[in-house]
Design brief:
566 residues; alpha+beta; 6-stranded antiparallel β-sheet; 5-stranded antiparallel β-sheet; 13 helices; elongated
Amino acid sequence: MEQKKIRNFKESTRHLFRLYTVIPFSILIVLFLIFTIINGRMNLTQKTSEAAQSISHSMAEVFQQYNEEINRMAVSPAVMNYMTTHLGSDKVYSEFYEFNSNQKVKSIFHIVDTNGIFRASSDSPDALYSNFAFSNLINRINQRPNETLTEMNSFRYSHDRDTSYTFGKAIVKDKRTIGYIVYQLYESDMQKLIFEQNNEIAMITDEHNTIIATTSNVTKGVLNKFSPKLDVQGHVLLNDGTYYMYSKRIPGTPIQVITLNSYKSEQYTYYTVSVFVLAASLLLWVIIHFLSNKMSARNSESIDKLVLALAQLREGNFNGYVDIQTDDEFEILGDEYNAMLDRLKDLMKKNKELSELRTIIEVKQLQSQFHPHFIFNVLETLRYAIKIDANQAQDIVMILSRLLRYSIGNDRSVQLKDDMNYVRDYLKLQHIRFNERLEYRISVAEETQDIYVPKLLLQPIIENAIKYGYQNQSNVLIEIRIYPSAGKLMLEVCDNGQGMDEETLQNVNQLLQSQNNTTQHIGLYNVHRRLVLLYGEDSGIHIDSTQGKGTCVTLTIPYEGSGNDV
């Protein structure tokens, strides 16, 4: 049986890099070609339609301006006066030239009476006297004196100037036609108006598809009409070329705008893109081949470093850091590995310190269980109570029994309500001893009763409050408040003792923040370090004190609700 060939990491990386680069690049080429075809077609249709829209807008303005002008001139007082008196021709010409000079499409102006005599004209009318087409134009105006005649017709004037569109209107006075006013628009001006950049052919036609103006004579068919041949896809076949056509009729007019653009420009684009894609593909393949070799070599070097570091870690070497500077995921992986080593060493250090601290605390607890001074004080109080109050003596024995039984237990964490029962018993014994000189108040939020806390958490704090509270005074008030706040469990032990000055308070806080305590004051320090090691830097002890007013010690540990071990 033939053994399967196994690639190493370097070869696999090179192979996968080439494979996963060529596949998306091939897809990208296909998408690029599709996009190019679609984009080319959209550009063709868009520029064709935009040209038609632009020309339509311009022609609509021209048509509206001439329509308004001929209707104004047909009732103009200057024209009426001139037709009846043959006086004031200068005013008529002045109005015409003032209008005509402001137009994009210039025109020739005629005023003809009912006998066919030209009373006013901006060009020589000699060629129109015997022109049958012009006579028919006048007759059509006369048949509808209340309407404005607009039609396509061609007339040639001197200097090879041609007109291709006419506006005509009857001049009516007292319900009687006294003449006709005619505007004939120059074809050359309309050709300039319909010329648009990025558009090959443009034309305007009337409602009968007769060409009024065009930018290319190849569009003119029989009788000057536009009647193109179409292929099966509806494209225009014109002059051995295929064109996309867009037509738009100008609202309120008999004029239609038609724009044409050849598909040949698309073919040139496709050819250019194909050549570009082929050249880019060859170049990219060379680059991919080179980069795959470089990348596989660099990545395999990073993997080798990580494998070596893991082997050292397996042997117990916690100083086997890796140095990877590749600015990619391998560098992140190397940094995370180094951070993991730091966390492991820090965790081992904390576990060692926590173990030592637990040993110290357990020793202190054993010491407190049989503290000679405490036992002596309780027994001395008991001796007097036996003589004076037997019931109180019995209470002292029961409370002391509960304290000793609770303190010798092996549990390291207990429910808060159990630990607070111990605190109440302890304070009861102290109250029996000091009588009215000791007063205490305990407030515990109900929802915190089932929370698990380190055993004998508050005892060192309360001992300090009693020990230092009676310095320079005879009465002490101790207040204990336990409540949740912002995801934390707050335990406050406050007294009304002499407090501390700012320097002493600062020294105590510095002692709590240090990691090594060489002083004899280890009670608060041990509690603080224990909380920090168990719950993190956000937990621990905070002390507020004002000299002459008292001291308040606040313990902070995480709080997640009833029944959870914080």
